[in-house]
Amino acid sequence: MKLDALLTSAGINIGLCVFFISIYSVIRKQPSNLYVYFGRSLTQERNKPNDSFNIENFLPFPGWILKAWGPTENEILASVGLDAVVFLRMIVFSIRIFFIAFLICMFGVLPLNYYGQEMTHNQIPRESLEVFTIANVKEGSQWLWVHCLALHIISFSACTLLYFEYQRISKLRLDHVTARPPKLSHFSILVRSIPRLRDMPLDDVIKNFFITYHGMSYLSHQRIHRSGAFHKIMTNAEKACTKFVRLRAASFDLKRRPASYRCGLCGGTSRSYDLYDNASDVEERRTPLSRSDSGKKEEDCSAALVFFKTRYAAVVASRVLQSSNPMLWVTDLAPEPDDLYWSNLSIPYRQLWIRQISIVVATILFLFLFLIPVTFVQGLTQLETLQQKLPFLRGILTK
What we know:
This protein has 399 residues and is α+β, with helices and mostly antiparallel strands. The protein is 56% helix and 9% strand. It has helices at 3-27, 34-37, 39-45, 63-68, 73-79, 82-114, 145-179, 202-213, 228-255, 279-286, 294-297, 311-319, 349-380, 383-389, 394-398; strands spanning 188-192, 218-226, 259-261, 273-275, 299-308, 330-333. Helix 5 (73-79) crosses helix 6 and helix 6 (82-114) packs antiparallel against helix 7 (145-179).
């Protein structure tokens, strides 16, 4: 492989990166995606996005890249959160390791590999990449210790930077936890896959279990209900029916003239009583769905929020295995309400394991299906090597 081919490949990759960054700069400005990329800021400011058409939303501008370098670490921590700061620290750590490896390889390893054997070198742009690898160093060379030293320096630098990064992130996490005001989610855990008993309500099952095993710290619990698709349809139908009945009643009042009768007892006017035909029917249609008991519609899913007296007790209860069967009484720290998709709690916990295994199997199959064409294309560039390694392919390759 020639160096100019490598530069061509690098140019193609850089062009693709610029293309994807341009696409991202356009997508992030669309009104329908604002809650995806700026959900937290919109929630805090409580401003509705402007859905009006703007030509600038379809033009890629690199100004957001420059703005991303502006905020300090403290500003990012205050506006976005600790997770974003940790992610940025990981990127900075990777850049530091790459920079150290670049300096060592550029000024130590590459010159050694380039002059590893006595040979006439061409111009660097026309050189093969093999002259820059360790394969160009002759066997038994006394300069191989440079490679070992470079590896030790890079490994030592990575371990040292990891130690300081861990200390830095641990301090940030401790300051973040201690500085935050106490919230209800700090004292609660999410319990899933709660077993059901025929002769005992679900509330009593949860209460008896946590009183037995966490009696000193248990405070209370709250079951999580789900409505299901049917009840969502009923709710939407009730809203639509209410609007329809109101509009129909309003048009009925305007189009139909009432029949008036005199009272006869107190000598009132002729408009003492206005009787409408089918007025009782209108009243009955006004809330036809509200008579059903909404409490009976609710279905309990096998999940609950359990509250403790201290944060330490909540953390311990969320990390301890609650049952000999790991598929029952699954506990975890309670997430923030905005970070939880409540409909997923109705999924049985056993199905979650099946879905995770399915995702892993699908990923493995995708990797193998991706490697097959890549291996085939790479093999076409090394036909001579394939003929030497696999002699039975000579007849096929010569054809």
